[in-house]
Specification:
Order of helices and strands: HHHHHEEHHHHHHHHHHHHHHHHH
Strand order of the largest sheet: 1-2
Largest sheet: 2 strands, antiparallel
Structural class: mainly alpha
Number of strands: 2
Length: 468
């Protein structure tokens, strides 16, 4: 992996950049176009390329696509000054500034330096993947040469857009994220800051459009979107028209940020720590593990957006039940009943479960400390000695598998205490975040309001199945 794209893409970019001796600025532009990191319209460079090729076809009298391929791959036309020397003043497709396409729409034009960039993009499209698409692209250029006008250019631009979209899907792991983020950005109207109600509003919009995504899944997308915005926010200036040479270390910053974003989840996520806890002794029951996984799966929203965490835990379970019932072929009254959210767990009840988890985890931490540090160790305060002694005595009251075997107990807590400490800390953060939410907005009222919203959304989305 190199900067968010695979080795094949890196090789394709390097071949064009080195073969044409592109400047750092032009290399960055080409990479952004290939990655789709052009705003506000990722396909605008392809539209420009199609029009430029149509203008060149008219200017040179190209008979077929091979003539246009020759122009695109000619190293002698890689620089603006050479293009100007070759074509300036030679026909109706040229004005004082550069290339134009008569009848190509008001204001379409490109300078000689712009044309040099577009021809570099043309070479990339032709030669990428070891010329795998060369014949197909050449055939498209045949069609353009037969009708080098605005309509022909528009048709070519659509083909190029589909072609490059397929290339991104194959070679850029960020492509699925990009599609998802574009939908979120459209909903947020370009904002990168969002609220819990923005997450709910986006999910409701997707449900109205018939997508039926799980609320938990949409919340997870916003987790990733928030992380991506933080990583890429400092790189916003890279798309400005100023030269990248003015941005110190831009190459390293771009590669590092894209690599971070494309990388898999870090090994120390809360979900990974929870999964790594030993099976014995039974520090957590299966239900407690499930509860922690439910509450902490939207890391870091469990501490920054407790309302979204509560919504996912309560109504996410309802939606999972609806989806499971439909997969089993159920419908009718059962769907209608579930869609009404009558079985949704209330936010106060969830808060009580969170509190119980924190109490249990704190108890397990005291036991872990007592097993690690003898109560008679030197330097302990009387309070610490009393706490450790109480924790050792507490072990005899825990009726769980493995707590009656001292050796197994010590080994199990020794393997788990680091993960246990982190899980207890994050569960405590969740409990404090929920308590803070309750001070701002009574949980009973918040739940009642949300139940009406979710019930209405479910009823509209699953109405057909409810009447089947």
């Amino acid at each position: 992996m190199t900067g968010g794209y695979d080795e094949a893409c890196a090789a394709d970019l390097a071949a064009v950049a080195e073969g044409r001796d592109l400047s750092r600025e032009d290399r960055a532009w080409l990479a952004r176009v290939v990655a789709g990191a052009v705003r506000p319209n990722r396909d605008k460079p392809l539209w420009d390329l199609a029009h430029a090729l149509a203008a060149l076809a008219r200017l040179t009298g190209a008979r077929d696509g091979r003539d246009l391929v020759t122009l695109a791959l000619d190293p002698g036309l890689a620089r603006a000054d050479r293009l100007e020397a070759r074509f300036a003043g030679t026909g109706e497709a040229v004005d004082a500034r550069g290339l134009i396409l008569p009848g190509g729409g008001p204001g379409w034009r490109t300078t000689w330096s712009g044309l040099a960039r577009l021809l570099a993009l043309a070479e990339f499209v032709l030669t990428a993947e070891d010329l795998a698409q060369f014949a197909a692209v050449t055939a498209w250029l045949d069609d353009l040469a037969a009708a080098p006008d605005a309509e022909g250019a528009a048709a070519l631009s659509r083909r190029l857009a589909r072609h490059l979209a397929a290339y991104r899907h194959a070679h850029l792991p960020l492509a699925p994220l990009e599609r998802r983020f574009r939908a979120i950005l459209r909903f947020l109207d370009g904002r990168r800051i969002f609220t819990d109600d923005d997450i709910l509003g986006f999910w409701r919009g997707q449900m109205r459009e018939g997508e039926r995504p799980a609320f938990r899944t949409v919340a997870e997308h916003f987790v990733t979107f928030e992380a991506a915005s933080a990583l890429l926010g400092g790189l916003a200036g890279l798309s400005a028209p100023a030269s990248l040479d003015a941005v110190e270390g831009w190459e390293e910053r771009l590669d590092a940020s894209l690599a971070d974003l494309a990388a898999a989840e870090p090994a120390e996520t809360l979900a990974a720590l929870l999964a790594a806890l030993p099976d014995g002794p039974k520090i957590l029951t299966g239900a407690e593990r499930d509860d922690l996984a439910e509450f902490l799966r939207l890391e870091p929203f469990h501490r920054t957006r407790p309302l979204t965490t509560l919504r996912a835990a309560s109504f996410g379970r309802v939606q999972s039940g609806l989806a499971n019932r439909l997969r089993r072929g159920g419908g009718g009254a059962g769907i209608a009943e579930r869609a009404a959210c009558a079985e949704a767990e209330t936010y106060p009840a969830l808060a009580d479960r969170i509190s119980a988890l924190t109490v249990h985890l704190d108890r397990m931490l005291r036991i872990a400390a007592a097993l690690r540090v003898p109560a008679e160790a030197e330097g302990l305060s009387p309070e610490a000695r009393a706490t450790l002694a109480a924790a050792l005595a507490d072990i005899r009251r825990v009726r769980r598998a493995g707590f009656d075997d001292p050796d197994r107990l010590a080994a199990g807590f020794g393997a788990a205490d680091a993960a246990l400490l982190r899980l207890a800390e994050e569960a405590g953060r969740l409990a404090r975040a929920v308590a803070g939410l309750a001070r701002q907005r009574p949980l009973e009222l918040a739940f009642a309001t949300d139940r009406d919203v979710f019930a209405k959304t479910f009823a509209e989305a699953y109405a057909a199945e409810a009447t089947a």
